[in-house]
Fold each of these.
Amino acid sequence: MDFLEGAWDTPDEGIWEVRGPRRHFTHSKVLAWVAFDRAVQAVERWDLRGPVDRWRQLRAEIHSEVCREAFNVELNSFTQAYGSDELDASTLLIPLVGFLPADDPRVIGTIDAIQRDLTRDGFVERYKPKERNDVDGLPGGEGVFLPCSFWLVDALLMLGRDDEARELFEKLLGVSNDLGLLSEEYDPAAKRLLGNYPQAFTHVGLVNSAYNLSHHIGPAHQRTKRT
């Protein structure tokens, strides 16, 4: 926490470790908020020691900054980074970690934008690499990213769109191999698994979504609602 107090407001490479210039990635700021939020909860719930007033202040500062700088009014969506017009699937985590409630209009707009502009055959892409190598340095043409598709399942569940969530979940199960294993990516055109295999990141998403779909009170539903 001491490190994060001095580092949360600096640019970084983001969850996808892009090869371009460092930026103020939305996901990074949201996860910094998560760290301060959970630290505050640890003090409040379990009487642990810590500078809770300062952490509350930083938590509020990060929340305000993300809502101000990372939301694109024209797109009606949170974007990949501050001031960006690029969508990023990592913003699906905003309701899952409790940063904002799923029924917040900004979250609904983000989910709808990702479904509309960042999916292929119903599966979710991480983001769309620029044709110029000034953001990522990667060529286009990667597969859809399976962990992100499970995030969409959970986000749809939180919105009460259970039928859509279950349909996507079943579709994801359908691309697993004969052992029930999934990779990092999938090519909907060639209908083959791509990337790191088997990918634990994907299977964590599968387990979380399966748990949430089972009508238990899953982790995504335990998040405190924020305004």
Note: The chain has a mean pLDDT of 91.
Amino acid sequence: MSENGNDTAATLEVKDLHATVEGKEILRGIDLVVRQGETHALMGPNGSGKSTLSNVIMGRPGYVVTQGSVIFQGEDITKLTADERAKRGLFLAMQYPTEVPGVSVVNFMRTAYQAVKGEQVSALAFRKHMKSQMDRLNIEDAMVNRYVNQGFSGGEKKRNEVLQLAVLEPKIAILDETDSGLDIDSLKLVAEGVNELVGPDLGVLLITHYQRMLNYITPDRVHVMVDGRIIRSGGAELALELEERGYEWTREEVAA
């Protein structure tokens, strides 16, 4: 039984994962398990491979798995395309969301929703679903009528990603440095949105460089990634220890 008490919880399992980017090995044997209903934080210094791991899990082109596998709900998805993984219930909130000029947020999300769910939905039915999630996250109508991320502040881009997460209803979400570039007020708003969505139906892998995001989102588990490997795991207190001592002490412990 999973930690959240749900026998049928979807599980993301990364097994001995090695991966290269442009011929350079970045991931050097990652083992990680995230279940629906759990919140995990993956921390590490810049260049440790955190974002590479998120892209490999989602099947982004250009990231080559040389060894190991990604298992989701008991299925080996290592060779599936990104859209096939999304249809199965995986979601990635990107560190640097891209602009889509000429396409409104509401139209973009309706297209994504239909692609992920594999069914057509009327504009009225989708708008009702989306509005319920907007109300839940305190997001105003004006934002979803704008073009996707065009002219958005850093905080608006990240809140838009959280709205996508709410609308698409994945089983496991990977949030890649959602706190990147946010001031403290924007950080609080984004964290409030994530906390609103966290629950038995959603597992979260929160990738972050700093402990500050974890002041607002309390993880069940914290993992430390250095040089393409997860070298330490623990409870939420591990993040506080990292904040106090930095990452160098973890390297020293591994060397010892």
Note: The longest strand covers residues 24-35.
Amino acid sequence: MRFLKNILIFFWRIWFYVLTLSVTIILFPLFSIVISREDWYPYFYKLARIWAKIVLFGMGFIPKIIYDEEIIQHKSYVFTPNHTSIIDIMLMLYLTKNPFVFLGKKELAKIPVFGFVYKRTCILVDRNNSKSRNKAFNEARKRLEKGLSVCIYPEGKVPDDENVILDDFKSGAFRLAVMFQIPIVPVTFYDCKKRFSFTFFSGKPGVLRARVHQFIYTKNLNFDQVNKLKDQTHQIIYNELKNDLSPEN
């Protein structure tokens, strides 16, 4: 029985990569057009949301989002979700129509086809290189100056230890929010690790719950409050994950 289950999981996991690559290839001509000009990014974002929805529903995932506060169109935010799975990307795109730019690992730019689009639309960073981090910070600042939002996983990586609920946060996202006096939006992803972790023979289709928490406003704050904002955001998401006692979906 266990063997049969592993076979089914194997083919389902392979289907994820086939589906993701196929949809990327199909949309590639349109992606190529809308990424050719920086001011066309909102059009790219609409296509990216279509891509994300196809992948999520094609894998049998059903997103369910709770909004404690409304995300207003054409306003800038710094989104700070926890990071547990590759499908965090799709779920984040699904939950808001408000165009944002991901700050993500430069290694993903090496993926065929996907990487071509990724490196032209996301802010790439090598977390182990201070020059790269500073360059990414400045690039994020430019995007915010153009009225876009930014999505930064403040953990900086998926926790190495499977038992870690939420890793320590880096300060970059909170410095940006203070610099531009824009709201921080804590986002909790409850089920992504359970549904599609980086352990290959694991996961299954089902509900993907997320919560957009009350915004943390930064107006009139200064850089002295960055650590406090970081700790406050971490506590909100940590408590939500720790107290999540919902039954298996």
Note: Strands lie at 61-67, 78-81, 100-105, 123-125, 149-152, 184-189, 206-212.
Amino acid sequence: MRRREFIVALGVATAWPLVARAQQAASTVRQVGLIASAPPTPAMLNAFRDGMRERGYIEGQNLSVAVRWPQGSFDQDPSVVTELVNSNVDVIVAWATPAVIAVRRATWTIPIVMVVGDPVGSGFIASLARPGGNITGLSNIAVDLNAKLMELFVELVPGMKRVGVVRNPNNPGMTAMLRETEDAVHKLNIQVEVVDAQTSIEFERAFAQLRTCCSVAL
């Protein structure tokens, strides 16, 4: 996790012009908006700040970080994105596909650094080599790992017959991930139980539901 958040920090730093970074003074404070679908964990935030510090940006000196997340989903609380965009931040870090979708709808000018599973398949960028537009960032390659993940579950839980999957239907990246998971479990003669969830409360309920019917929930 810390490595991924450091890479995001690196992406934020390189999103600013090199000349501006070279000429930055103590009086120049860069404004970063960090938005996620749910409250980021302390470990994620600490890793992000550590990565920025290693690039020469120290919160309270030449860096200001505004952390935001919606109350429920972005559709239920669209003002969280509008307020962040209108606060004149220099760059926005968007964790997870729903956050990128919401921010992209709100601005085509502020640089966006994303952390998503399938940036090309989700339609955020044209290609990994030439993203274009105002979005850059990285993929967490979760889609490519689904088949191996299922193989590991079978080894860890002998006799497993059913696996539960919690899906955010508003996350386009979940389509590819679910397809890969279903293909993998069918080859292993395992059934899939899919439950949709968008908010943190819905995710808790979904996992509670799957615990009653499935050997593994992910």
Note: The chain has two domains: 2-139, 142-217.
